[in-house]
Design brief:
Arc Repressor Mutant, subunit A; alpha+beta; about 30% strand; about 160 residues; DNA-binding; 2 domains; homodimer; elongated
Chain lengths: ~160, ~160
DNA sequence: GTTGAAACCGTACGGGC
DNA sequence: GCCCGTACGGTTTCAAC
């Protein structure tokens, strides 16, 4: 039996490109070229492919949350009030820009959110908005300090 | 009394630049210039300042975790075995590349980690490594599905 | 902040492996 | 198929204003 391709990286060069652009998304093709030892054209073609195949899904600036007025982060676990109802909480909450991430999880709660707000008062307002928008209970864990986050996901 | 600057964005134009580069970190200065209505040079100078002031701390490619062989994510809460000891768990764990984020938190546990691994077996190995490296108990919540994450932090 | 000129970069295309 | 080189238009950079 032929083994399935375990992931969508063709080879070590693709992995090197992903690593380099994960470390600095604004790196030029010339810099990426130097990093992996291929011509600029070849790197450009590979980068395009990585984007179209969905390996690279976008490019983001990392922004200091305090600098943009959102110094308070929290994990909010949510659970539907009525477990019988169809559950589309992620969609119902998508319009709330304070929510940075939404995962469904194993364990006591149904979803884990990561949120960022300006103050405890804003956190209270957001939690109320979450509860009423998605008909859920919430369990909130305040982040006291972030040591690191958004470390690059490196190809194995 | 003069109000303290609440954050480190000078004005709406800086906010616009941050928003634009958060949405697409590979946008050219010309594109950013068009987005905020300033000359290319002025945008470049502002972007540099935002970087040196620490408002923008870097640029990352968003990588599909499954495509690079890490389809399994989990939240790992950790608590020191001996609460009397000096606690430098974040440093002790920093060398583990599977850890994407480390926050200290309020509540039952001391820290919340976000980790990504290839399989349940790798998760077990990682949890053992975390326990022995930082002398902690762990409480793990597996991520079943990620609806969204890394949504941009927009200036208020 | 703006303009402008030189250096650099992104892109498409041709040819070779 | 993938890769490299070249050429042209767009971009980045920096100095002068």
């Amino acid at each position: 039996m032929v083994p399935d391709t375990p992931d969508r990286l063709d080879d070590d060069i693709d992995a090197g490109i992903v690593r380099a652009v994960s470390h600095d998304a604004r790196a030029t093709l010339a810099e990426l070229s130097a990093a992996v030892g291929l011509s600029v054209s070849a790197v450009q073609a590979r980068l395009r492919k990585l984007e179209t195949r969905g390996v690279i899904t976008g490019y983001r600036a990392l922004v200091d949350a305090e600098s943009v007025g959102k110094p308070l982060a929290a994990f909010v676990e949510i659970t539907p009030l009525d477990p019988g109802q169809p559950d589309n909480a992620p969609e119902l909450l998508e319009h709330l820009a304070e929510i940075e991430a939404c995962h469904s999880i194993a364990g006591d709660s149904a979803y884990m959110l990561l949120v960022r707000v300006a103050s405890p008062r804003h956190l209270e307002t957001l939690i109320r908005a979450i509860r009423s928008a998605a008909s859920v209970n919430t369990h909130t864990t305040v982040v006291l300090q972030t040591f690191y986050e958004n470390r690059p996901i490196l190809p194995a």
